[in-house]
Every structure is written in structure tokens, then in C-alpha cells.
Design brief:
Elements (H helix, E strand, L loop, with lengths): L1 H19 L4 H30 L1
Helix pairs in contact: 1-2
Keywords: Membrane, Transmembrane, Transmembrane helix
Protein name: Apolipoprotein acyltransferase
Length: 55
Amino acid sequence: MLVVAGVLGGAAWGGWLAKSRGGLKKDMAQYAAGFAILWGIIGLIATIVIERMAA
């Protein structure tokens, strides 16, 4: 669940950031993809850590 939230939140944040910096649609797509990947990986690591601590 954290992975999905990280991907969606990262994509929204990346798109917003590129738009606020005056980027074109391609820039917004690239930022959204990059931030989605980054926050998805962070969410995955957090999920693994939480599961290991719970078990």
C-alpha cells in the first residue's frame, strides 16, 4: 500500500514541480515518472522494514 501511495504521490508532486518551474508537458511527464519511481522505491523499502519489524 505504501508503494502505491508513493508512486501516485510522487507522480503528482513531480508533475506539479515541473509545472511550477514552467516546464512543458514532456518535462512534466519526465518529472512525474522520475518522482514516481523514486517514491515508489522509498515506499517499497518502508514496507519491507515495517514487515520485518512486525514479524
